[in-house]
Amino acid sequence: MKLTLKLAVLLVVTSVAGGCSNRIGAIKSTFEDSLGGSDALRTAAVVETTELPSIFITINQQNTIFVALAVDEMLPESFDGVGGLTSIQKWLSADGVIIITQHGQLVATKGLLSDRTRTRFSTSNPFAVGLLNITDGAEFLGELSWQPGNHEFYPFSARYSLVGEQQLDLVLGSFAVVSYQEVVNIPLIGVNYTNRYWVDAVTGQILKSEQMITPNGDSILIEVARPVNASVAEGVSE
């Protein structure tokens, strides 16, 4: 599958932010004027073009795109089965592709040839709990929906295994991380796939991940450039 995400910035949109479209347009224009090639964008100078939280994404191992966050969106507990409000991030591309993340996990997309339309844990949400806080080998249950084909509410199990500790070099700096493997099993279609997460050993925030968007479909790599959580300390450059 070929996906054109261009160099336009991906930005969060919410239903409650007044004047958000003007802000998005201004930031988008600034980035389009200042950024050049694709993989060459992965530099500290690019991250410093905005004080907004930002990430780098790569779909299907194609060119890396720099992405900035405008606003978080708060949803009720029913969104992920965890009590209270929960925060999600919606990232929107110039050609209409939307990528939605929550607690560092990809939960939905819109505008791709194959879209994930829903991710919901029926037990507790391991990403809300924090991967650092779950038992090695723990299994969680949930439902996954995707298109095309009207695949709705397919039960899945996800088992989490500790891979090890390492030093992860990002544009933001160098971080001590704990890496985890997530093996997802969807028995109704006989599919298993593996996601990887690199978690800040101090804050518990997911700094980098490799996830499947749909079963047997596209993959996405997400790398934090500037964290959403302002309390996350900057890494130590080597």
Uncertain stretches of 5 or more adjacent residues = 1-38, 230-238
Mean pLDDT over all positions: 78
Radius of gyration: 17 Å
Count, helices: 3
Shape: globular
Arrangement of strands in the largest sheet: 2-1-13-12-11-10-9-8-7
Strand content: 35-45%
Q: Main β-sheet, in a few words? A: 9 strands, antiparallel
**Helicity, as a percent range:** under 10%
Question: How are the secondary structure elements laid out?
Answer:
Elements: H1 20-34, H2 44-47, E1 54-59, E2 65-68, E3 73-75, E4 86-92, E5 98-102, E6 105-110, E7 115-121, H3 126-129, E8 139-147, E9 151-170, E10 173-186, E11 191-200, E12 206-212, E13 219-226
Antiparallel strand pairs: 1-2, 1-13, 3-4, 4-5, 5-6, 7-8, 8-9, 9-10, 10-11, 11-12, 12-13
Describe the structure.
The protein has 238 residues and is mainly β. The protein has 3 helices and 13 strands, in the order H-H-E-E-E-E-E-E-E-H-E-E-E-E-E-E. The strands form 2 sheets. It has a 9-stranded antiparallel sheet with strand order 2-1-13-12-11-10-9-8-7. The chain has a 4-stranded antiparallel sheet with strand order 3-4-5-6, with no helix packed on it. A hairpin with a 3-residue loop joins strand 8 (139-147) and strand 9.
Pick out its properties.
238 residues, mainly beta, four-stranded antiparallel β-sheet
Brief rundown of the structure:
10% of the residues lie in helices and 45% in strands.
